[in-house]
Amino acid sequence: MAVVARRLLWASLALAPITILVDLFADPGKTVLFVFAAISLIPLAWLIGEATEHAGEHTGPRIGGLLNASFGNAPEVIIAVIAVHENLPAVVRGSMAGSIVSNLLLVLGAALILGTDNAELDRPSLLSQLLLVLVAVLLLLIPSVPGWHGDPNRHSLALLSIGPAIVLLGLYLAVTIVDLKRRPVHEVTNATGWSLRTSVIVLGTTTAVTALICEILVHSLDAFARAANLSEFFIAIVIVAIVGNAAEHGGAVVIARRGKMKLATEIAISSSAQVGLFVIPVVTLVSFAFANPLSLAFRPIELIAMGFAALFVGYVIRDGLARRWEGALLISVYGGFVVWFLAAGDR
Q1: Tens-digit pLDDT profile for the chain (347 aa)?
Q2: 120: how many CB neighbours lie within 10 A of its CB?
Q3: Is 254 helix (H, G, I), strand (E, B) or coil?
Q4: N or C: fewer beta carbons within 10 Å in the chain?
Q5: CA neighbours within 13 Å on the CB side: how many for 240?
Q6: How many Å separate Cα 15 from the centre of its chain?
Q7: Pairing of strands 119-120, 321-322
């Protein structure tokens, strides 16, 4: 059965180039294109998970998690830059906040449910990543609080966002360098695997294709939103965030299913930290190359969701063990946030 499933996944990778060709040379309608793109992301996410697992066998879970977070977050950066170019700042902020929340609650929850029960986790590394998320939320208060009154997209707030963005980016680089110098923690594996070079090439190529598919999907979201009668905020913080995180979803789940809980949990949590300390500041600084630079004036609901998710996950993994019921609890909390996001509407 597993062999058949793998063959189907390999075959379904053809959906990605088909979707790109349909987008370029046909006009099936935005709703159909949305469905095509969404389905195409499933095998691409699986392949990123496969490549990351093989890379992790050579590097250990810390660097493996960093690799997956880096390649997995590339579509988010591209999606955000496209949205900045199209002057959709609320979509950018919502998608980045939703990315952090969905990684911490949905992706980590799925990994805990589908992985090995009572498995040991790299507690110090995970807690340090969660602390970084909390630091990011605190720094984001600087441009956010003034944005709760008046126009949140005014130029003065964009200028005020530069300082926190630089601090976050500097902190990310410092922590990453220190973390990479630490001795990697390897998990026992009997897999022969791909070479590190092959794994990295597959990761890079697959991520590039994933970015193209995500772009197609985002461009078809507006038509989907009108058909579904959903707010721009909900689309950004839930749908776009989940789409942009398809790689982390697939990678963490695939790796957790194979019992490599340290790597799977590292992917989910380090990806959230990377969004807060790398994706957000990079997109902010790059946005000044466009006519309407991005202000980091997040809504209270976004800041509360990010902060609470980090604190709650820290409480759940405080004993350094992975439990399935805790994964179900995390997903339930995420479901509660989704309902709140739906009720909140646009600013």
Answers
A1: 456 667 777 888 899 999 999 888 887 888 888 888 888 887 887 787 778 778 777 776 667 666 766 676 777 788 888 889 888 899 899 999 999 999 999 999 999 998 888 888 888 889 999 999 999 999 999 999 999 998 999 999 999 999 999 999 999 989 888 876 765 555 445 455 788 888 889 888 888 888 888 888 878 877 887 887 888 899 889 988 887 777 667 777 778 888 888 888 888 898 899 999 999 999 999 999 998 999 999 999 999 999 999 999 999 999 888 899 999 999 999 999 999 999 998 87
A2: 12
A3: helix
A4: N
A5: 34
A6: 22
A7: antiparallel
Question: What is the distance between the alpha carbons of residues 253 and 247, in angstroms, rounded to a whole number?
Answer: 10
The secondary structure element, H or E, covering residue 120 is: strand 119-120
- Entry field: residues in the chain: 347
- Phi (first) and psi of residue 161, to 5 degrees: -80, -15
| Lookup: tokens for 1 | 């059965």
Give the DSSP H or E segment for 227.
helix 221-228
Amino acid sitting at position 235: I
C-alpha to C-alpha distances, 199 to 6, 49, 50, 162, 194, nearest whole angstrom: 17, 10, 8, 36, 6
CB 77 within 8 A of CB 222: no
Q: Is 119 helix (H, G, I), strand (E, B) or coil?
A: strand
Q: Determine the CATH number of domain 2-344.
A: 1.20.1420.30
Q: What b/e readout covers 203-238, taking b as 16+ CB neighbours within 10 angstroms?
A: beebbebbbbbbbbbbbbbeebbeeeebbbbbbbbb
C-alpha span between 180 and 266 (Å, rounded):
14
> How many C-beta atoms lie closer than 10 Å to residue 157's C-beta?
21
Alpha-carbon distance of 11 to 199, in angstroms, equals 19
Residue 71: in which H helix or E strand, if any? Answer: helix 61-85
User: DSSP for 29-63?
Assistant: -HHHHHHHHHHHHHHHHHHHHHHHHHHHHHH-HHH
> Could you tell me if 121 and 320 are in contact, meaning their C-beta atoms sit under 8 angstroms apart?
yes
Task: Provide the terminal-to-terminal Cα distance of the chain, rounded to the nearest Å.
Answer: 48
Give the largest CA-CA distance in the chain. Answer: 59
Report phi then psi at 192, rounded to 5: -75, -45
